[in-house]
Amino acid sequence: MNLKFIFKLIKKEISSVNKIIFDQLRSDVQLVNRFIKYFNQNSGKKIRPIITLLFSKILGYRGKKDIIAASLIEFIHIATLLHDDIIDSSIIRRGRKKSSIVFGNEISVLVGDFVYAKSLKMIVGLNSKKVLNLISKTVHMIIEGEILQLSNRTLEISQETYMKIIYQKTSSLFETAAYILTFICNVDSDKKIALKNYGRHFGNAFQLINDIKDYQNCSNNFISKGNDLNDGNFTLPLIHVMQKVSKKESMEIKKVIQEGKGRSILRRISFLMKRYGSLEYSRKIAESEIKIAIQSLDHFKCSSYKTALIKLTTSIID
C-alpha cells in the first residue's frame, strides 16, 4: 500500500500521534519497555488514526483534540491486537514472530491491559462523556465479536453471521475512527451517517481482504498461511467452498477442522477454493464494500483529503 501521498497531507499530525504513542507507552518497568520496543519495530501503517485525521481535515476541525482522538483509536487497536495474538494460533505477524511468542502470553496480556489503561487517560483528556460512551461501546463490541467468533469455532456458520462477526471485531473500530470527531465538532446528521457508513464498509473490506490473503499462495510461506483454518474460524472463503463441496467432503473437512488439524488440509482446501471460485467470490464482496465506502464520501465536497480517503479505500484491494 503506497501511503506517501497521504502522509504528505497529514505529516505534522501523524508525527504528533507517533510522539503521543511513544511517550505514553514508556514505563518504569523495563520489561514493558523491551516488549513495546519489539512490538513497535513491526508496527502497522496506522490506518485507523489516518482515517480520523483525514476526516478531521474534511470537517475543518481546528484544535488539538483530533490528535488525541487518533492516538486513542490506535491505542485501542494495539491493545486488542496484543490480546488477539494470544487467542489465535499463528506464530508470525507482519513477517516476524509475534510478541507473545517472544515474551510469553502473561506479559502480552498485561501490556494489553497497560495500553487499555493509557487509553482511559486519553479519554479524560478529551473531556467528553459522549466520546467515553462511544469508546466503551466500541471496546464492548470488539470483545463481544471476538467471543462470538470463538464460540462459533469449528462450526459451519452462515455468511450473515460471518459479516456480523467481522463488523463487531474489526469494522466497529474503523467506524469509530471515522466519526469520533463528530462528538467534538458540529456535524449534521447526514454527514454523521456518511462517516459511520464509510468506516463500517471500509472495515468490512479490510477484514475480507485479510481473510482472503490467508488462503492465497499457500505453496509459499506455508507457516504464515491457513491460520483461520487451523483455528477453526469459518471466514467467507471457507464458508463459500463448504457450500459447494459434496456432503461427504464437507463432513470430512469439518472433522479435520474440529480436531484442530486444519492446516494439514490447507492445500486441499486451496485447490477446492480455486475450483469453485471462492476467493473471487469473497473479493467481489470486498469490492462491493469498497464501493459503498467511497459512495458515502459523496456527502463531502472535493478536496485533497477526500482524494486521499478514496485512494486509501481503493488500495485495500491491492
From TrEMBL:
Q: Name one Pfam family in it.
A: polyprenyl_synt
Instruction: Give cofactor(s), names only.
Output: Mg(2+)
The record's top EC class is transferase
Q: Tell me, what is an example of a GO biological process annotation in this record?
A: isoprenoid biosynthetic process
Q: Enumerate the Gene3D superfamilies for this protein.
A: Farnesyl Diphosphate Synthase
Q: Report the source organism.
A: Riesia pediculicola (strain USDA)
- Report which residue ranges the record marks as coiled coil: none
Kindly give the InterPro entries that the UniProt entry links to this protein. Answer: Isoprenoid_synthase_dom_sf, Polyprenyl_synt, Polyprenyl_synt_CS
Q: GO molecular-function annotation terms?
A: metal ion binding; prenyltransferase activity
What the record says about family reads: Belongs to the FPP/GGPP synthase family.
Please report the name of this protein according to its UniProt entry: Octaprenyl-diphosphate synthase
Question: What keywords are assigned to this protein?
Answer: Magnesium, Metal-binding, Transferase
Q: What is its EC number?
A: 2.5.1.-
The major lineage groups are: Bacteria, Pseudomonadati, Pseudomonadota, Gammaproteobacteria, Enterobacterales
> At the top level of its lineage, which domain of life is listed?
Bacteria
